[in-house]
Structure formats: structure tokens, C-alpha cells
Amino acid sequence: MRGGAAVGRLGIPGFVVGGLLLGAAADAGAMPAAEFQSCLGRLQAAAEERGVPAGVVRESLATVRFQPRIVELDRSQPEFTTPFADYLGRRVNDDRVRQGRELLARHGELLRRVYRDYGVPPRYLVAFWGMETGYGAYFGTTPVLDALTTLACDGRRGEYFTRQLVAALGIVAEGSVEPGRMTGSWAGAMGHVQFMPTAFMDHAVDYDGDGRRDLWGSLPDAMASAGNFLRRLGWQTGWRWGREVLLPESLPFATEAGDEPRTQARWRALGLRTAYGHPLPAAEASARVLLPAGHRGPAFLVYDNFDVIMGWNRSEFYALAVGHLADRLAGAGPLRQQPPADAPRLSRDQVIRLQQELQARGFDSGPADGIPGARTRSALREFQRVRGLVADGFASQAVLAALAVDDGDTQGRSRE
User: Is residue 37 part of a domain?
Assistant: First the structure.
């Protein structure tokens, strides 16, 4: 084998041996060359078995490199959960709104045509575009084949990334992009709207009629592909994602503000109003209330299209940001009720401690996994009810004190 000093494509010093970039230190996640070559052989066979031409497979994978930094990124978890105020403020700001409105006007004809064909209004298409790549400003610079091969061989999610790699090779085989132009995020998401390769294969469309599905260089292809994906996820034309609402002081949080949907008629009867104080529309709809920053922050009534946005990205914060950005692009102002700036910033370990403390007190919060999902919120609401606190399911300072869990405030608010 020939070898030589090199710097990896992510700027990580390493050593190339037979096409493999080995990290300089063992703790960087480096893989032995023989093990990587064996994995590469299995991946080549898998791609060929699934119909990718052997020549495309061999040529595309001939220069792939194992990237230790990608393994580190995949294995790491965010040290701190980001308060909603921080998350939203960084993603929906005046500059992004201004730029998005300009792009809505500039590409209005294209976006209206996509709306006619796929049923997704222009403001949502542009909101996804803004959230994913800052309106095309940054696609990511990681070679997608390197990223997917590294993650498939690392093994933690090997089966998933093997499927993604096979799909990426299929994209090359169909002529949509040359391997050298296939760059994206460290996890392999690509183009204006950051599709993973399987989403590309299933949902990308050639909307400009040039014979290629190009999510990097063709905005028509990217916007139509986003519309097609959302339609197939179940987007309901004529319905909004949700809305900011005002909650009445008399709202029984413990019984009505959980994760179960209610009819809009029920929410009207309970006294919920729009953010501008008007009665909710009388339309027949099922909706649920979200309180991403607790009862002191903004409240949202979310409909079925919110769950469609969640099908694109499983984060409630992400879906709220997409919906709010879409509203701002259409002319709406900032939230009427701003999130509190003093929300606790909890590390994953602190969330685990919170879940353990709830479980120890007889409140079923589910597995202590550090992810504050629906079961954790339900347990928090019941704990709050028993302790005489507002049962909003939010880990406020008062809740943390009652559970003897340190808040993360002293860890540094500027970190995400």
C-alpha cells in the first residue's frame, strides 16, 4: 500500500493509506485500514445487489475517506438543551425575514406554480429554505460519499447509513450530480433544502425539465421537491400550521393543556383567543396547545400541518420556527408574547436527573434518556398539579428546585 501525509477534507490532519484517511490519534475515532477496506467491500456489494451499476460504485467509492470528525459529531449529543427564546431568536430574526420577503417577491412566479402543482403555499417553501440553508447561502462542504461511508462503517447506525449511501450512489448513477459536486452536511443532507439521499430518491423532481434532479444548482427543482415531499407527508392545502394564541387565566392546565388534541370548538369554549385577542375561527379542526417556554411564554395552537412539518424534522422547536417564519414572511409581526429570557438551560445529564427524580416520586416520565418528550411533560404536569404549581409541563426554576435538580443557568447562557 502507498501512503502519504494529508489533511482530510474536513481540515483534520491524518494519514492516507489505500484511500483511507486515518486520524492522527486513536481517540479521534480512527478505523484500522484493513477494517475500513473490508467494510468498503461490503458496501460495494450491497450497492451492486440493489441495482447500482458496478462501474459507478467502484469509481465513486475509489477515493472515499474515513473521516474521524464525522464520527465524533454523530456520537456527540448537545451538552445543553437550548431554551426556546435562544432557538427562535437565532433562526427567525429581522434579517432572515427581510431576505425571505425579498425572495418571495423575486421568485413569486416559480413559487406560485409550485403551489398550484403541489398545494404548499410559497411562504412555507421559503421558510423551509431559510431554515435549512439560509436561502441557499450554505449547503455544507462535507463530501457526502465520505460522510455516508464513514457513518455506515462506524456501525452505530450502520444499517441506516448504508441505505443512504446506496441511495447516494443511485443519484450519481442517474446522472443528477457528479460525485465531486455531491457535498452537504456532515450527516449527508444535501442541496438547497438539505434532503437525505433516500428523500432525494423518493421525492426529488426535475421541475426545470433539463433531465436531471438537481437540488444544488436548480432552484425550481429544489422548491418543487420540497413541495412534493410535504404533499406526500400529508400537507393539507388551505390549512395553516398553527397560530399563536392567548390563554385565559382560568385555563385548567392539568386537564386541558396536555399533548392530547381537542377540537377548536372546545378551545373556543375554554376561552382561548388569537394572539390579537379575537375569537378563534369557528372552523372544524383538531388542535393541541404547545407551551415551549412554559405558561409565561408564548402559547401555540397547532394543527395537522404542524405534524407534517415534524415529518421533515422531528423537533417541535424546528416546526414552530418554520411556522412562525412562514407567518412573518406573509406579513405577520413578531410573537405577541415573547419567550422569557431566564428559562433554565439544562444539560442532557440534568434532564436525566429530572426524569429520575420524577420516576422516584412515582411520576412516570418514561426512560431516563435525557430527552424531555411527551411522557416527561405528562409526568411534570402531574407533579406540578400535586405540588400546587401551574401544570404546564415545563421544567421551570420552581420545578427544578422542588425536585432538587440544579438549573443550568450558571453553565453559561450563550452556549447552545
Answer: yes
Confidence check: pLDDT of 77 > 80? no
pLDDT in tens, 311-356: 999 999 999 999 999 999 999 999 999 999 888 888 888 999 999 9
> In the prediction, which pLDDT does 169 show?
98
Instruction: Answer with the one of 129, 163, 190 that is the final residue of a domain.
Output: 190
Q: What is the pLDDT of residue 25?
A: 31
Q: What are phi and psi of 14, to 5 degrees?
A: -165, -160
CATH code at position 375: 1.10.101.10
Q: Grid coordinates in use for 145?
A: 460519499
**What pLDDT digit, counting tens, does each position of 377-387 carry?**
999 999 999 99
- Partners of 16 in beta bridges: 4, 21
Q: Which amino acid would we find at residue 62?
A: A
Least confident range of 32-36, 54-58, 137-141: 32-36
39 occurs within a structural domain: yes
Total of domains in the chain: 2
Q: What is the pLDDT of residues 352-375, one digit of tens each?
A: 999 999 999 999 999 999 888 889
C-alpha 301/C-alpha 287 separation (Å) is 6
DSSP 3-state of 160: helix
pLDDT above 90: percentage of residues in the chain: 75
Query: What are the C-alpha distances in Å from 280 to residues 69, 275, 301, 319, 325?
Result: 50, 10, 10, 21, 21
Candidates 311, 341, 338; CA nearest to 92 is 338
Query: How far is it, in rounded angstroms, from Cα 384 to Cα 280?
Result: 28
Q: For residue 186, what is its C-alpha cell?
A: 456532515
The CB density around residue 415, as the number of other CB atoms within 10 Å, is 12
- CATH value at residue 47: 1.10.8.350
CA distance 257 to 292: 12
Structural domain including 43 reads: 3-75+140-190
Partner residues linked to 132 by β-bridges:
none
Q: Which residues contact 160 (CB under 8 A, 6 or more apart)?
A: none
Give domain status of residue 312, yes or no: no
For the CA atoms of 395, 401, 407, 410, the dihedral, rounded to the nearest 10 degrees, stands at 150
What is the band of 180 on the pLDDT scale with cuts at 50, 70, 90?
confident
User: Which residues make beta-bridge pairs with 195?
Assistant: 190
Cell 437550548, located at residue: 82
Among the candidates 131, 161, 190, a domain finishes at 190
Q: In this structure, is residue 129 part of a structural domain?
A: no
**Angle (nearest 5°) at CA 169 between 167 and 175:** 110
